[in-house]
Amino acid sequence: VIETGFAAAGRRLRSGETTSVTLLDTALDTASRTEAQIHAYLTIDAEGAREAAARADADFADGLDRGPLQGIPVAVKDNMCTRGVETTAASQILAGYVPPYDASAIARLRDAGAVIVGKTNLDEFAMGSSTENSAYGPTYNPWDPDRVPGGSSGGSAAVVAIGSALASFGSDTGGSIRQPASLCGVVGMKPTYGTVSRYGLIAFASSLDQIGPLTRTVEDSALALASIWGHDRLDATSFAGDYPDPVAGLDRGVEGIRVGVVAELAGEGYEPSVESAVSDMVARLQASGVEVVEVSLPSFEVALSAYYLIAPAEASSNLARFDGIRYGLRVGGATTEELMARTRAEGFGPEVTRRVLLGTYALSAGYYDAFYGQAQRVRSAIQGDFGRAYEAVDVLVSPTSPTVAFEAGARTADPLAMYLSDICTIPSNLAGHPAISVPIGLDDAGLPIGFQVMAPALGEEVMYQVAAEVERLAEFSIEPRAAAGVS
Amino acid sequence: MPIEIDIAHVARLARLDLDPDELERYRAQLGVILEHAARVQTLEGEPRVESAHPLGLVNTYREDAVSPTLDRDEVLSMAPEAFDGFFVAPPALETE
After folding, report:
1. Would residue A152 show up in a list of annotated catalytic residues for this protein?
2. Which of A185, A302, A349, B88 has its CA 20 to 30 A from that of A130?
3. Residues in chain A closer than 8 A to B60 (CB atoms)
């Protein structure tokens, strides 16, 4: 079990106590012991990783230091294009697809000297909250393999919890980084929209998708973010202004910070163990010097409804590119339309099909204004509510997920129940704001509970400042049962 | 309020060749989801604009300059069928 994060490993790399090749061997060894049970990776690129690790070690020997990720074994969600390495988005329609280019975030990881161990499992096209929608079989939770790891970045959360990578990267459209981080007891963060390039991220809902890190510590999260974000001319929505410094506030403490507790993210549907852990943490933050304010954001009540119109609408448009003609699966037909319709029916799994149909309906003539148009107005209302709240507080806090990890299969037959998993995380996506999940404890069954800290756009500095205090107060230890049980 | 869905029409628009059983299953599921989603219509207060980028970015343009692109052969190597530098597809229109 790895006690600390990659920042600590980086110090050992720089003092000569360890090598990148050694860190990689440990990660690969952990994967070989745990993959049969957890199934977090879709592809392990041992050869490519060994080359990168050897290069990192040679760079250290030459005195060349590219920053905190140099020589660190990391994993990336399989919806980010990696040149020369199969990228499937966990869909049959992309089986065997080998991208001819790197996503911008991947290119930055390579430039930073990171060692990419492999591609992690996800819900097909990142649509889901349990990683059970993968066409290649589900991932299981390292704390209890009968339970889901959350999703859609379930593989990315599991590898960090179990130590088959020291950090990973996922994508978050409605909570797909933070919710699995919460369920797997690791730190997961979604940055401000537009700060991490989406170029080469296989698009789900373009106005919501954002790449972000999953790590063992808050410091690692801030360092990992700093390594991948920044303006990119290949993404037209990329932010070109001044970026905050995510590490600046980590050791500052929280004296005088104003923390808002969101009234709407509590009550019915929230497990008592989750609610009590969260309110206990709020009390401890108060003892650390924060000012606690209860705030109400009424539009949050309809955030989930708006999300399940906007995200599928954008998905139905984005996924039109999977046509059986340029790449991916082809099922033959007499005409182009027949070929497309057969290929898509065969290649998309049930959740993707459901969302494409839902989005097509919401955008279709006669329904557009009542559904999609109205959902976009709700989105404005959410941004308005956030704006008013941030006049009175610096950050907002809530549970990350209303429940701990649920049992595999428990919600697969009821799409709406599955969608409710993301009720706490969706508002930040609709507003484009940053948010982080930090593990704060275990319930009676030994399952992790996550605490969410939300901040206004480009508020990463204060978000990490509070998250670091939460981490200090929680003294959470990442020791999942599956990792401890197999040796 | 139950929501009417012409699921066969929606599937055709989405280019999804689904059989009658699948269509009926998706129609029922979409009905449940859309009933929940219809709560967006309960939003109160003055009419609001539809929003896009949270940081208020509008159009971004690059310079109109030629830059390197992906290698054609490498791209075509991922196509299910290619010939002489082109993607191959069946006719778009039915022939007589």
Report:
1. yes
2. A302
3. 236-238, 240
- In sequence order, the 6+-apart residues with CB closer than 8 A to the CB of A463 are A395, A434, A435, A436, A453, A454, A455
Chain B residues close to A390, C-beta within 8 Å = none
- Would you call B1 an interface residue with chain A, using a CB distance cutoff of 8 Å? no
HEC per residue, B38-84: HHHHHCCCCCCCCCCCCCCCCCCCCCCCCCCCCCHHHHHCCCCCEEC
Question: CA A217 to CA A230: how far, in whole Å?
Answer: 22
CB contact under 8 A, A415 and B33: yes
d(CA B21, CA B24): 5
B17/A341 touch (CB, cutoff 8 Å), yes or no: yes
Active-site entry in A104, A152, A164, A168? A152
- Separation in Å, CA of A481 to nearest CA in chain B: 36
- Give the separation between CA A66 and CA A113, rounded to whole angstroms: 6
- In the annotation, is A316 catalytic? no
Chain A CB contacts of B49 under 8 Å are 377, 380
pLDDT (tens, 9 = 90+) of chain A, 487 residues, equals: 456 899 999 999 999 999 999 999 999 999 999 999 999 999 999 999 999 999 999 999 999 999 999 999 999 999 999 999 999 999 999 999 999 999 999 999 999 999 999 999 999 999 999 999 999 999 999 999 999 999 999 999 999 999 999 999 999 999 999 999 999 999 999 999 999 999 999 999 999 999 999 999 999 999 999 999 999 999 999 999 999 999 999 999 999 999 999 999 999 999 999 999 999 999 999 999 999 999 999 999 999 999 999 999 999 999 999 999 999 999 999 999 999 999 999 999 999 999 999 999 999 988 898 899 899 999 999 999 999 999 999 999 999 999 999 999 999 988 888 888 999 999 999 999 999 999 999 999 999 999 999 999 999 999 999 999 999 999 999 999 765 444 3
Q: What is the ipTM of this complex?
A: 0.93
Question: Does residue A437 have an active-site annotation?
Answer: no
Q: Which residue out of A130, A164, A171, A176 is catalytically annotated? A: A176
